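Record pair follows.
FIRST:
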Amino acid sequence: DRLPRTFHVAGTNGKGSTCAYLRAALEADGKSVHVFTSPHLVRFNERIRLAGTLIDDATLARALEEVLDIGGDLNASFFEITTAAAFMLFAAIPADACVIEVGLGGRLDATNVLKAPVACGIASLAIDHEGFLLAPEAGVPEEPLNRIAFEKAGIAKKGAPLLTQRYTAAMNATIAKVADRARAPYLPRGRSWDIVDYHGQLHYADDAGRVDLPAPRLAGAHQISNLGLAIAMLRHQSAIPVSEAALRAAPLWAQWPARMQRLEGGPLNAMLPGRTLMLDGGHNPDAGQALATALTDSGLAPDGIDLVTGMLANKDVRGFLAPLRPLIRSIRSLPVPGHEHHGPEVFADVAAEWGVPYRACITIHEALGDIAASDGPPRTVLIAGTLYLAGQVLTANDQPPV
């Protein structure tokens, strides 16, 4: 109830990047911003920014201790406890705004205790977390994508504009129904706002006019949509004004590690001289398609890619890799320590079916060393499949998020 003015973002893919653009625009306008995102890549502290700075260990420890003492025997989940700790700190420490990323779904997510956000946004939607978001329940849509839309739209709040991307007509109808029930203005892309790329210049437009923006520094055509959603959320609320100059700065200021990130320098790059090393935490079919499009459109993979991957056991390996199939020239798999993950036999079967070389590796250094020793052109190396693996890579390359 006492948080600064809050922007709430849900979605399957792109919600983290949308939060990064929101933060960048607000900070470019001189605002101080609290941010709550998940998951982390290297250290838990990455999930909580207090007025722009990652939380320090001592402050985090005190907040968790207080929440755990208050919670007593409630048997609250890890995410509920950490959300409570973040919100408690956000209420106590002055800031101009909060940017809050939904953890999972929306309707039943711990962050959805928010009562009065200034704007809500829903990023790209796809099938993910099926065990939770598609669990049988009375009174909810049965068609999977409509059910996903229903769950994400659960963040809608009375009077707060709900900005969304383009979806199918049925998904739009589902979201519109939820928004109407919540008495939230529903403002979908294509009807209330839009953003287009014309020869590298972005043009955003809504009823208030047009804003010309530079291309995002974050790689991939999908980042244009994420940027547009952030701009739309900022322009359709009046609680915290943001200048057009700050909106134009956002695509250049925003940082979001392990999203089509080109690794520069560091020990891992030194192992692969002459090659491009890309890192992405994508892990579902929608993310696989975005990766394939970004690699193709950018010209980063003229000779295809050598893929290094590890994936959690509840993810669809073939669904994620299928869009990348035309680019993949070899596959090396890794375990994901500390998490239930797919074994090497799953990746071996895919590689055999597609007729590409395969090797099971134990560490990222082993995988990259094997690539360095292999014959063939110096292809781009893509490391992808889970954010947990991405965190290990950033640590190994001496590039933890800051």
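SECOND:
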Amino acid sequence: MDSPAVGSNWEVEAENWVRWARTPGFDAYWYYSPSFFDEIVPRPGRQTLEIGCGEGRVARDLKKRGHHVVAVDSSPTLLRYAKEADPDSRYELADAAALPFTDGSFDIVVAYNSLMDIADMSGAVKESARVLDAGGRFCICVTHPLNDAGSFVSEAPDASFVIRDSYFGPRPFEGHFERDGLQMTFHGWMYALEAYARALEGAGFVIERLREPSASAEASAHRFAYRRWQRVPMFLQLRAVKRSG
């Protein structure tokens, strides 16, 4: 969760985000993250870096799966919450496009729903490549570019999905959401799939796995509106490997 503009917005929204993220079963993370950990993230290695850790839920889940985690974010308040919840791991204030680590420090880098929050997305991808060992894996989840470009006209399972402007970006995004007494304003960037692919190619990565998970039966049973997301992908999940040489 980075870049001066977007990073400051996450600091402003920090308290709202902590309540949002730590309410069990509340948002899509609870239903989509298991497939990410199972299918995208490889087995733990020497050291795993998480970019844009927020209040730390991804880092904590990685730790439960045996990863030795170092995590960075641009929001001091979110980092404080992350450290309080997991005092044994290392959390640092940092810009994703200027990471404070030496070359080849990690064998896994994870960016779970953070690349679309970074204005210099390609710079963050290059930095991820720099701090990875040759053959290291970059594990990414982002809001699906199709999802970013359009919206459903209603919450009905068969509602039409409409792209009113353009699929192509980049362009800034802002969305305010309120549900069950919680509220959150998200700020970020809309990137087309090609923009992510070009950033990875330019940094020396090769995509080795790509998934577009649909809403699970559990998600649909929990919240009626998730049934729409069995027809259109909400997230894009992928794993890229850093080429040798």
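COMMENT: The two ends are 30 Å apart (CA to CA).
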